[in-house]
Amino acid sequence: MIERFLNKACLIKNPKQELNQDGELQNQWSLCTIDQVEAFKAMIKIIPIWITGMIMSINTSQGTFYVLEASSMNRHITSNFEIPAASVATFMVLFTVLWLILYDCVIIPSASKLRRSPTRLRVKQKMGIGLLAICLSTASLAIVEGKRRKLAIDEGFQDFPQGVVNMSVMWLLPRQILDGFAEAFNGVGQNEFYICELPQSMSSVASTLSGLGMSIGNVLASLILSVVDNVTKGEGNESWVSSNINKGHYDYYYWLLFGLMLANFLSFLCFSKAYGRCKGEENEGQVEGN
């Protein structure tokens, strides 16, 4: 029904009034070309899936909290070397590159060899796997923070957030591995999806959609943080996201984000099924499924 409504934008209803004697439009703004209408349809169609990528960015916008956690954990690798707290986030970038290399150089060649035919994941499969990895990443972070907070209280650091608990910063590594995995699959999959599904005339738009979603995700992350802070610090209670990380409940906050990421993943499955096959998938020998 929406398509029929949009198709009206390129229909000439009254040629005598809308066209001049040479058959040209009297008002260029009164009628769209077929290409313009089809491009707009494609843009509307991808919005639900684009939103799932935007929601995923909320989780990757929590970098400040990871620095707070790393600062209160044992960061010594050897007796003479200590990882700077702010450098922990760089592991995600390293693992993103590592997963990309493994996917192209190990996973795909091995799968193709086992199947005895060229094999690769579909674009929406990549995106879905990335969203699932984000769910696992958030859950691991909530579990680790719960354990870290309990240790901090047991060791008498409840009123001393600068205290370093007897817990290695390597406990944060699973989160970095999973976030790198998610970015390698969903981030790359998003760009491939937009470029493939939007017309060539919108290639510049397709290349910026992922970045736009990430920017909006950062804004939404700040909004969620403000709401959680205002709701949980009422009536003399300490906020979940208190400046004192040992008095707050960052683990509860992460579980809240986990629920959001899980709902986002389930929504993606519905949107992906409703979207149907992507362009060029009908005749390709790829892994089955959306």
**By CATH's scheme, which homologous superfamily applies?**
MFS general substrate transporter like domains
Percent strand: under 5%
Major sheet attributes: 2 strands, antiparallel
Radius of gyration: 24 Å
Briefly note the structural class of the backbone: mainly alpha
Give the count of structural domains.
Answer: 1
Poorly predicted ranges: 285-290
What is the succession of H and E elements? HHHHEEHHHHH
Question: Can you tell me the CATH topology?
Answer: Growth Hormone, Chain: A
CATH class: Mainly Alpha
CATH-defined architecture: Up-down Bundle
Mean model confidence by pLDDT: 84
Overall geometry comes to: globular
- The total beta strand count reads 2
Percent helix: 55-70%
Q: Give the count of helical stretches.
A: 9
Order of strands in the sheet with the most strands?
1-2
Distance between the termini: 25 Å
